[in-house]
Design goal:
Blueprint lengths: L5 E7 L2 E7 L2 H10 L13 E8 L4 H4 L8 E8 L3 E8 L3 E6 L3 E6 L4 E7 L6 H16 L5 E11 L2 E6 L6 H10 L3 E4 L2 E7 L2 E5 L4 E5 H7 L9 E4 L2 E5 L11 E12 L6 E5 L1 H12 L6 H15 L3 E7 L3 H12 L2
Parallel strand pairs: 2-3, 3-8, 10-17, 17-19
Antiparallel strand pairs: 1-2, 4-5, 5-6, 6-7, 7-8, 9-10, 9-11, 9-12, 12-13, 13-17, 14-16, 15-16, 18-19
């Protein structure tokens, strides 16, 4: 018996994206998790992503793995349970074998991908969205010169300000602090950057933000008992558009990239720096070492052009959130 397939077509900036699945509930979760306009133009899709629920025996038929010569690495990924990941790579494609969950394949040149989640394997919908949908889609969109960067972003006085840097530097906390001051949030974790005429813009494909429970109690105590808050262990996931007073913005021109450095003191201040001083904090978390080498080189060229087009700052991030917010607001005012 052949599978019945369900499709949805979206527009992401200039890209037409087609999502195809054999699971109607999965498509409904895609609609809920992606805050994107549907495209009814019937234009040919630039990016195609198939999301399938299948028996494990379907792997070699639907996504044949390359031989062991192409294996790059293996590691454990912590979701709602540990998942052993094995990575394969050739000149234009990657395969991620996800232990007992499934497999993800991406062809960067053709802009096509497939994620198979094994039947009878339960995964929290939040992790399903991140692992099988948002992650692969963001990578494939580089075919249309949209580059995913690991960063949070806010809009201040109409200007997009991106906070990047190594893990633990305070990127999400910075976004929450500005959100509390009624500035619109682009994302708390990843942003797609693209050239828009003579400047660069940033966009996010979802209004969901993740907050650690400790930060949630500090910044958003009113959400502790909110039904809009989806809790997975110590992580809270929120749809900003469903919550009054928490503004979200899909895209904005980007004029500032800020690297955060925690001071442990109350005050915050910013110093303007050259793009070269940003690279050690920005590039390691933005370039994916498991991507095809040719794609990594193209991303590097793109990112260097981006860095040279925006104002770069080192922000000494203090513990007084109001004072920090004022510092960022002055940057946004130019």
């Amino acid at each position: 018996m052949r599978d019945e397939f369900f499709t949805r077509t979206y527009r992401i900036h200039t890209a037409i994206v087609k999502i195809c699945t054999n699971s109607l509930p999965w498509l409904e979760r895609v609609d809920e998790g992606m805050l994107l306009p549907e495209d009814n133009s019937r234009s040919l899709a630039d990016i195609k992503l198939s999301l399938l629920v299948k028996d494990p025996e379907a792997i070699q038929k639907d996504i044949p793995l390359p031989d062991s010569r192409f294996q790059q690495d293996e590691y454990d990924l912590l979701l709602d349970h540990p998942v052993h990941v094995t990575i394969y790579r050739n000149e234009h494609e990657t395969w991620s074998l996800l232990g007992d969950l499934g497999i993800i394949w991406k062809d960067y040149r053709r802009g096509q991908g497939m994620g198979i989640r094994y039947q009878d394997q339960m995964l929290d919908p939040v992790y399903e969205q991140i692992l099988f949908l948002q992650g692969p889609l963001a990578k494939l969109l580089f075919k249309k010169q949209m580059c995913k960067i690991h960063a949070s972003g806010v809009v201040v006085s109409g200007r997009g300000i991106i906070f990047s840097g190594l893990s633990g530097k305070g990127k999400s906390t910075a976004a929450y602090a500005l959100l509390r001051r009624k500035h619109r949030v682009l994302s708390d974790e990843s942003i797609l950057v693209f050239r828009n005429g003579q400047q660069y813009s940033g966009l996010s494909i979802s209004d969901v933000i993740k907050i650690q429970s400790e930060a949630a109690r500090l910044f958003f105590p009113e959400l502790i008992d909110s039904p809009s808050c989806h809790k997975v262990g110590e992580e809270w996931y929120l749809h900003l558009n469903s919550l009054p007073g928490l503004p979200y913005q899909h895209s904005a021109p980007v004029s500032v990239l800020a690297i955060l450095e925690k001071t442990g003191e109350s005050g915050s201040y910013a110093e303007k720096i050259s793009p070269h001083r940003v690279m050690n904090d920005f590039l390691p978390i933005t370039l994916d070492p498991y991507e095809p080498v040719s794609i990594m080189k193209e991303r590097f060229t793109f990112l260097m052009s981006f860095l040279n087009s925006v104002q770069c700052y080192l922000v000494h991030f203090g513990t007084d959130m109001d004072q920090f917010g004022q510092t960022i607001e002055r940057m946004g005012e130019g």
